TrEMBL record:
EC nos: 1.1.1.1
Name this polypeptide is given: alcohol dehydrogenase
UniProt KW Membrane keyword: no
Top-tier EC class: oxidoreductase
């Protein structure tokens, strides 16, 4: 395949931005890497956090963000045997890991201290051509459209992993906080496919309509509820509260409320990463009700295979809107205003 020397990309040249839409060199793959011609890339709230330097983790600058890239392999290193030129591939948040630490040896690669993170410590997928370590790239099934697959590569895998970590079983109830966003819209569907009942928590009529279209049994609008805790409890069949809570919110308050409406022996899974936020829970309540509070990060390679398989079987449909790569600054503005229902997927210029 013909590979150009230059490509279009959205580049943050300093922490806090702004983004600069410009041409940069096309990278060349190392021995264990693939070069993917990105066709589509989802936009995640993490991408905005990365550009703004919100987290206590050093971020690469200048930076090409993005970590939900779906496209075609156009070149590969001499040590790559699992991909061929022309294969469909996805590049995820976990771009690579050392492969030899305790965590990597136990398939906990996301916890590797030397992990390479797409769109954070290495350049990501808001460009026409992007690199990834072949062992961490995902093979995208032929029957899955690349634009629809993009959000699954981070949002889908992340919430699927969170539901597994929660240990919630078929017939039980999960409260999904931030249910109307990119992660939440997928979390609802994975939960439903697993036979889990959903209470969707978010704000606004557009998100209500989307959640109800996805089949949620109850939508609790935090902007209109006079007693959110009581409303979530009332939405569970026996009124005892949710068996698990999946926290996808981008503000701190929902993280403090969750212990009030999760049932005894329930599990709270923190996934969202609001800047400078803290988890707080009353010790007495947590102990005597045996509440489990834990964090869930991105999935490992097997989680990725499973999450994509749900999609390939038609059990998951990610609500998304297509926009050109040049529109990324506008999408960040909408994201900051909380006005995005579902996910935006960027289409790369040809």
């Amino acid at each position: 395949m013909s590979i150009p020397d230059k490509q279009w990309a959205q580049v943050a040249e300093q922490v806090g931005g702004p983004l600069v839409y410009k041409q940069i060199p096309v990278p060349k793959p190392g021995p264990d890497q693939i070069l993917v011609k990105i066709k589509y890339s989802g936009v995640c709230h993490t991408d905005l956090h990365a550009m703004m330097g919100h987290w206590p983790l050093p971020v690469k600058m200048p930076l090409v963000g993005g970590h939900e890239g779906a496209g075609i392999v156009v070149a590969k290193g001499e040590l790559v045997h699992d991909f061929e030129v022309g294969d469909r591939a996805g590049l995820k948040w976990l771009n690579g890991s050392c492969g030899d630490c305790e965590f990597c040896r136990q398939a906990d690669d996301p916890l590797c201290a030397h992990a390479a993170l797409s769109g954070y410590t290495v350049d990501g997928t808001f460009q026409q051509y992007a690199l990834g370590k072949a062992s961490h790239a995902s093979k995208i099934p032929d029957n899955v459209p690349l634009d629809a697959a993009a959000p699954v590569l981070c949002a889908g895998i992340t919430v699927y992993k969170g539901l597994k970590e929660a240990g919630v079983r078929p017939g039980q109830t999960v409260a999904i906080v931030g249910a109307g966003g990119g992660l939440g819209s997928l979390a609802q569907q994975y939960a439903k496919a697993m036979g889990i009942r959903v209470v969707a928590v978010d704000g606004g009529d557009e998100k209500r309509a989307m959640c109800e279209a996805l089949g949620t049994e109850t939508y609790v609008d935090f902007t209109k509820s006079k007693d959110l805790v009581a409303d979530v409890r009332a939405a569970t069949p026996d009124g005892l509260g949710a068996h698990a809570v999946i926290l996808l919110a981008v503000s701190e308050k929902p993280f403090q409320q969750a212990t009030e409406y999760v049932r005894s022996r329930g599990t709270i899974i923190a996934i969202g990463l609001p800047p400078d936020a803290n988890l707080k829970a009353p010790v007495f309540n947590t102990v005597v009700r045996m509440i489990n509070i834990k964090g869930s990060y991105v999935g490992n390679r097997q989680d990725g295979v499973e999450a994509l398989d749900f999609f390939a079987r038609g059990l998951i449909k990610a609500p998304f809107k297509i926009a050109p790569l040049s529109d990324l600054p506008k999408i960040y503005e909408l994201m900051e205003q909380g006005k995005i229902a579902g996910r935006y997927v960027l289409e790369m210029p040809e």
